[in-house]
Structure prediction request, 273 residues.
Amino acid sequence: MLIHPMPNPIALQIGPLAVHWYGLMYLLAFAQFIAIGRIRIRQPHIAAVGWKKEDLDDMLFYGVLGVVIGGRLGEILFYNPAYYFAHPADMIAVWKGGMSFHGGFLGVLLAMWLWGRKRGRHLMDIMDFIAPMVPLGYAAGRLGNFINAELPGRPADPSLPWAMIWPNVDNIPRHPSPIYQMLVDGILLFIILWFFARKPRPRMAVAGMFSLLYGCARFFTEYFRVPDYEVHFAGFTISAGQMLSVPMIVLGILLLVVAYRNKQQAQAPAQAG
Prediction:
């Protein structure tokens, strides 16, 4: 059995200036977006439609705003509105943790739509392009959650080799759920999506695959995490994270169906000719 190391959430402090690990994880997430994006731009089917390095830098500015604002608003509205409305000063305390992926996802959608309007690009082309760059950023965020000793797991069998006691919670062995989500929702999803996106796909297919896979992965890993709250529906009990993942699963299926149906319809006249 393991014990959470409970590291200092402050990575570096110089006088009144404190640099938090959580903030550094977001910086790492944005850095990998640029690094992975530059590799993706060199893929022949991506270069063929005119993506350039300059697009990444400009897009990142919009994306950062979408992630931070959307992620924080999602945390406030989706997960803990009562607390934040009772403590409004904590709404801006992002260095303490507390960012909703689902809120950030919506924030990025809006940010990319605004960027696309400025640059004359279709929203779904943008989402297809950036989808493979998202999972590793998500993984970095979950590592930040673990460092902050946030999102403790559900009680685990003490015989589980990696069962972990979280001293800030209790003395019960628990699943290290942020690590599960980092590995499954983040790294594993990146590997699958990266190989899927290496070949030309119809518009909406890569974004649809991301939405479907993330929704399914998050729904699964939520079983190991203490839920923020639970929802009862048709005799089933699911967590808040699972409830918010269901629309992503549905959206992913719809996007994939439409993408490949449009591809078949486009191919039919050519075959007939």
User: Anything to note?
Assistant: Residues 32 and 157 are 36 Å apart (CA to CA). The chain has a mean pLDDT of 91.
